[in-house]
Here is the input.
Amino acid sequence: MDLEVFRLAADYYYNLLNAELHINEWVQEKMSIAEPFFRFISVQLEPGSLFNVLIPLMGIFSQDLLVQLLYMISVVSTVSSFEKWMYPELRPLWWLRELYANGNGNGIKSGVALLSHDLSCETSGGMPCAHSMCLTALLIIASSHLSIPGCLTKWKFCLYGLIGCCIVSVWLSRLYLATEFLHQCLLGSYIAVSTVTNFDRHSHYLYSRRRSWTVSVVLLLAGLAVSAYFIKLRLGLDPHWSVRQAFKWCPEPTYMRHEASPIFMLARDLGNLMGVAMSAPLVELKSVKSTFARRFGGICIVEFFNYILRLFTPKQHGRLAFLAYEFTRNACHSLILIRILPKLVKQREM
Here is the structure.
């Protein structure tokens, strides 16, 4: 009985993937005119770009907004990275090519064809879509800091419509580049909304945790990631399966990036979380009086040095050095933005 249920579930899953391939194909056929826009979205709104560019820029307007964005986007991105590390799901191009490599025996109609782009060579699993997760969380948090009077229903409707258009644009971008299935985009946004809602409900408790508690949680998560690696090896599973899939099906290996691998994303996200954890307790962070010009200058200086450090990432000195460097850089980046930046841009009292 259990085997029969499992077989039916597997058949349903395969049929779902086959059906969603036609959605990717339809988007590529009907929306090819928007390819430059989709490429721009995919590059500029990836989680790494949010941490290094967009979040600091938005933080110019408010330190409270900066802290909440760094905290929540780090959590949401970590959830996505753990899912990709624990169970890396297939991407559309991988699935399509596996079907034809195996003799097209899964019932997919002949004639389905997807274009491959340089941005299609992702090396992590497809589920959930990190782009839709992080952008959804960012838009929810940013909109919560906008002071719109309750009587202005029209403006709220326009705001929610704009947020919806931004999220749908990201979905279409990932579908067009054949990097995600539709269900991966939808579930990514749903997980982001659920995560932000639940953390916001317990925000006072989480913001009041002491540094020793928050750092211990991050170390526990790092230990869980390492344990998952050795458990997979013990079970005969390949921890780097998604990377090998990318090497197998990417038309040009030079299109693949170190920064897109699941182990790198874990190091990046745990580094960002560690920076937030070392800034705890967040409830004790006090808003300092500062001018827009001082905050703009301070954040520009921080991001300039962060950019220089990114250029000197040791990609040719082994995986351990690479991961340790990225973990440390992201931890210091978050810590400086949350703890040290307010002291640097504090307006002097006359």
Remarks:
- The mean pLDDT is 86.
- The chain has 14 helices and no strands.
